[in-house]
Amino acid sequence: MTLSAADQSRLDAFWHYCLEHQHFNLGYPEAADFDYAALEPFLRFSLNNCGDWGEASNYLLNSFGFEKEVVQYFADLFRISADQCWGYVTHGGTEGNLFGCYLARELFADGILYCSRDTHYSVAKIVRLLRLPCRWVASQPGGEMDYDDLSRQLQIDRCRHPIIFANLGTTLRGAVDDLAEIQRRLARHGLHREQYYLHGDAALSGMILPFVDQPQPHTFADGLDSISVSGHKMIGSPMPCGIVLAQQRHVQQVSVAVDYISARDQTISGSRNGHTPLLLWAALRSRTASGWRQRIAQCVARADQAIERFQSAGVPAWRHHNSITVVFPCPSEPTWRRHCLATSGDTAHLITLPHQQPAQLERAIDDICAEWQTLTVPHTEVRAARRASSSS
User: Which of 36, 333, 346, 390 is most deeply packed, by most CB within 10 A?
Assistant: First the structure.
């Protein structure tokens, strides 16, 4: 490849920009402490994982063998035998959620999707793409699904085959919907296990919950029909990717034979990135289960330290059990832009990840606390003056 001097200069400038900003994110859950230098030689090849990794394909430059091992790893992680599930490496969490909803719609043509208002924004796109009827269930203040509202909507619809979209770590607050409670509510409406579909969106928490001492229910053994996890979040990757797993019996209904590649295909995109399975395989092989537990424990400890700092300054910060998402009142726009915080309405969050430097986190906390005190001290002084005036 030969570029002009001007084009090369532009690339050089972008390289320095990336170096400067590679650890920018406090509000977004992409771990940046990865090193895939050993895989760089494979960038010279057009790796295309087209179709099912379990079948031979006419397209020989694929990484099917590595993808199979990635799927088996996650099958073990989410407590389902490899011969009872099927999955693949996706372009990201949204594709995994689309795949789960697609399977559910193909299983239940009369199904209605139920998801909380704290569900990831991509689900609104998914229901339009699939033309899937959807009910937006209210959320509790902490972001967890409001199960009473779920029951009310189930009662109104009298849907024979509800499709439940459960959040296993919401985007803004890190809330985990209670799979057991959801299934109790379904049972109260006379719905048996074969009458509904339960998908779990575990974009970030899918690589957290399996490695903590007291996880919330999050596996196929807890009732899931499918689950989606992001690969570029807690694992870390130079490009977006993810993994989706589903019960094999559901996947069979969407599998089609493709003459062009002499194989079957049941994926959303058909042609798929053959490099991302290599990335995930290398990441998973390079760290033991105890290593993952240590990694998660470090992130949780950092979250608790941040909360302690916030609360000592009067900022009402908090996190959910097993979450590394620290939630607090939204600061001013200059502050949240300066530190790349995620915001929604009057709420903001930061996410504690392994690559973050302590000084980076401290600067953000200092700025938020200083701003909070300038907002609250005057009100405190006014209240004190009023109390003094009334007592006199």
Answer: 36
pLDDT of residue 85: 95
**Per-residue pLDDT at 375:** 78
> Which pLDDT does position 21 carry in this prediction?
86
Residue environment code for 38-68, b if the CB has 16+ CB neighbours within 10 A, otherwise e: eeeeeeeeebbbbbbbeeebebeebbbebbb
Q: Which two tokens stand for residue 94?
A: 């949204």
Q: Across the chain, what does the average pLDDT equal? A: 92
DSSP conformational letter for 48: B
Give the other-Cβ count within 10 Å of 277's Cβ.
28
Structure tokens at 315: 């900022």
Cross-strand partners of 230: 242
Rounded Cα distance between 282 and 276, Å, is 10
Residues with catalytic annotation? 323
Domain locations in the chain as residue ranges: 14-25+288-391, 45-285
Dist CA 309 CA 326 (whole Å): 12
Phi, psi (rounded to 5 degrees) for 309 = -65, -45
The Cα–Cα gap between 199 and 305 comes to 33
Cβ distance 165 to 114 under 8 Å?
A: yes
Half-sphere exposure of 12 (CA within 13 A, CB side): 7
pLDDT digits (tens, 9 = 90+) for 55-107: 888 889 999 999 999 999 999 999 999 999 999 999 999 999 999 999 999 99
d(CA 26, CA 30): 9
Report how far residue 185's alpha carbon sits from residue 148's, in angstroms, rounded to the nearest whole number: 8
Helix axes 64-77, 275-285, angle to 10 degrees: 50
> Does 389 score more than 90 pLDDT?
no
Q: How far apart are CA 249 and CA 17, in angstroms?
A: 48
User: Can you give the pTM of this predicted structure?
Assistant: 0.92
Query: CATH classification of 14-25+288-391, choosing from 1.10.10, 3.40.1130, 3.90.1150, 1.10.3470?
Result: 3.90.1150
Q: What is the pLDDT of residue 391?
A: 46
Across 307-354, where does the E strand assignment appear? Answer: 325-329, 342-344, 347-351
* 45-285, CATH topology level: Aspartate Aminotransferase; domain 2 (3.40.640)
